[in-house]
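Write out this protein's structure.
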Amino acid sequence: MEWVRRTSFEDAVEVSVRRSVNADRNRLFQALTVPEYIDAWFAAPDSAPGSTVVTMGPDCFVVSYRLLDGGEERFVGSYKVLRRGKVQFAWRRDTFQKATSSLVKIRLEGDFGRTTVHVTHVGLDESEQSHYQMLWEASLEKLASLF
């Protein structure tokens, strides 16, 4: 998957969500980047509970889940760790139609036992804004409930 840059999204919509979590940055970093942990906190709108599966590819990861209406969604991402408190995901919906990539930026701010997770998802179409706002709010809420 080709890497995307923020400059590619000058006219695109973005979503920004913050959540305080009772965990240190190292534990949150692991939860956000290890595939076995991602499926524990990822919460897409209208997804069937317990249906999220995250698998690793050679240079990417795939998040798939069943929808309540019986359909299935898949996202392909590749991540770049900029430092322990900052991670970026190139993010693309995996469909038969041509899909554009977007960028998910995650910052971990804080020390010791409390950390603020700040997710900014850029490069979205206006029609996707509400979906991703709900996705990241629900996912961070679920992440916080794990600690």
